TrEMBL record:
<comment type="similarity">
    <text>Belongs to the glycosyltransferase 14 family.</text>
</comment>
<dbReference type="InterPro" id="IPR003406">
    <property type="entry name" value="Glyco_trans_14"/>
</dbReference>
<dbReference type="Pfam" id="PF02485">
    <property type="entry name" value="Branch"/>
</dbReference>
<keyword id="KW-0735">Signal-anchor</keyword>
<keyword id="KW-0812">Transmembrane</keyword>
<protein>
    <recommendedName>
        <fullName>Core-2/I-Branching enzyme</fullName>
    </recommendedName>
</protein>
<keyword id="KW-0472">Membrane</keyword>
<keyword id="KW-1133">Transmembrane helix</keyword>
<dbReference type="GO" id="GO:0008375">
    <property type="term" value="F:acetylglucosaminyltransferase activity"/>
</dbReference>
<keyword id="KW-0328">Glycosyltransferase</keyword>
<keyword id="KW-0325">Glycoprotein</keyword>
<dbReference type="GO" id="GO:0016020">
    <property type="term" value="C:membrane"/>
</dbReference>
<comment type="pathway">
    <text>Protein modification; protein glycosylation.</text>
</comment>
<keyword id="KW-0808">Transferase</keyword>
Length: 401
């Protein structure tokens, strides 16, 4: 892809959101097409875009009795893939079928641009260095993308990681307000490091204590600028290159080691882990945008040991289905992981359409609850005994039982 085609060179925001209306065939077993077509529409959406597929998502979003029918909804997405693979101008073909906003949708978004690092492992059109799961190659690719963004002259404010099976749960405007509420703090998952991940480095002290985290992270620009220039971070990367699944050891090993690493927005992960072990409280049941209920909002993911998956389990993690959607859209996280067009594609399309519709028809969105997350308050100077919601610290995204 040429420099002119890179999203950050063309506009102040990269966004992934959604809409409706189409000409292609939908296959719906046992149900007439008229029952599933037609939904609220974004009037500017040309019918050639994939997300303009004509499916009525109201029963899925509102969890009505008809929702079960949508588990059987099919759509021929392969023809788009074939055209992209065969195309002599890949970027032009992608722009033909995928909708990208040409300018910010509000002044608030224009003044607070966001950066996204997007790493995929399958269904690739452009191929970078090959990475195998569990090896350093994944972290190397993620970090190179992160470093590229950090060195840009573009004045983005926060970085968010995405994978190829992610979909946004928040509009770009909602993300902007949430990132503002983070107030310069880093948002990463927090778990104890597992001993079997040291591999050949067992007995060799790392540059900083290691912690486990999910891949997805929200990182302020000041932290990014520090990280890519830090010699200690470089030593940490070299150390992690000899460990197992290093991509799950990087972000919180950086963000959770204040003051050993003076990264802007950092916190003390060991204090949070200690609190989990000694606090006699229950984690909140409710987790919504008005009561976040957690301290990690990077992405919503369900592991096979956590709850029932309405779609399919792949690599120990839920690929969400249609029956999961009503719960997913109430969640406070920024991203949902995993969704696939090969597993109950109506789930993917309906979340996509809902977010696109809200992008062009904004709802009232108050991000106050996000400013009450424990890591945000700890970064702002509160003691751990002064937290508004200490119980929000109790579960990481890997929680069991």
């Amino acid at each position: 892809m040429s420099l002119e085609d890179r999203p950050f060179e063309r506009s102040r925001n990269l966004r992934i959101e959604n809409c409706s209306d189409t000409r292609a065939k939908a296959i719906f077993k046992g149900v007439s097409i008229n029952e599933i077509t037609g939904t609220r529409k974004h009037s500017e959406m040309p019918t050639n875009y994939i997300e303009a597929v004509n499916i009525n998502c109201d029963p899925v979003i509102n969890n009505t009795i008809e929702i079960v029918k949508y588990r059987e909804w099919k759509y021929d997405f392969k023809r788009f893939e074939k055209e992209i693979y065969k195309s002599k101008n890949v970027c032009e073909t992608i722009n033909k079928y995928f909708y990208f906003e040409k300018k910010p949708l509000s002044e608030e978004e224009e003044k607070f641009p966001l950066a996204f690092g997007f790493v995929m492992y399958k269904d690739l059109v452009q191929i970078g260095k090959r990475s195998q799961w569990g090896t350093y190659g994944i972290l190397d690719n993620v970090y190179n993308c992160f470093k590229y963004l950090a060195h840009l002259k573009h004045d983005w404010k926060y970085y968010q990681y995405l994978s190829g099976s992610d979909l946004p749960l928040r509009t770009n405007l909602e993300m902007v307000r949430i990132m503002k509420a983070l107030n310069g703090s880093i948002n990463s998952d927090i778990e104890e490091y597992e001993m079997d991940r040291y591999r050949t480095m067992e007995g060799i002290h790392p540059p900083v204590p290691l912690f486990k985290s999910a891949m997805s992270v929200s990182m302020p620009r000041a932290a990014a600028n520090y990280i890519v220039r830090s010699q200690k971070v470089k030593r940490l990367l070299r150390y992690l290159s000899h460990t197992w699944i290093p991509d799950e050891s990087f972000w919180t090993s950086i963000a959770g080691n204040a003051p050993l690493l003076r990264v802007p927005g950092s916190y003390r992960a060991r204090d949070i882990i200690w609190l989990r072990k000694h606090m006699n409280m229950n984690p909140p049941w409710e987790k919504t945008t008005s009561s976040v209920g957690t301290t990690y909002i990077g992405r919503y993911q369900v592991w096979e040991w956590q709850k029932v998956c309405g779609g399919q389990i792949k690599s120990w993690s839920c690929v969400f289905g249609v029956l999961d959607v009503p719960d997913i859209i109430t969640r406070p996280e920024l991203i949902v992981h995993k969704l696939s067009l090969s597993v109950e594609p109506a789930a993917f399309m309906c979340i996509l359409k809902e977010i696109r519709y809200r992008s062009h028809n904004p709802i009232e969105f108050d991000a106050t609850s996000y400013s009450e997350m424990p890591t945000v308050e700890l970064y702002s100077g509160k003691r751990i005994t002064e937290l508004t919601h200490p119980e929000w610290l109790l579960q990481s995204s890997f929680y069991r039982g």
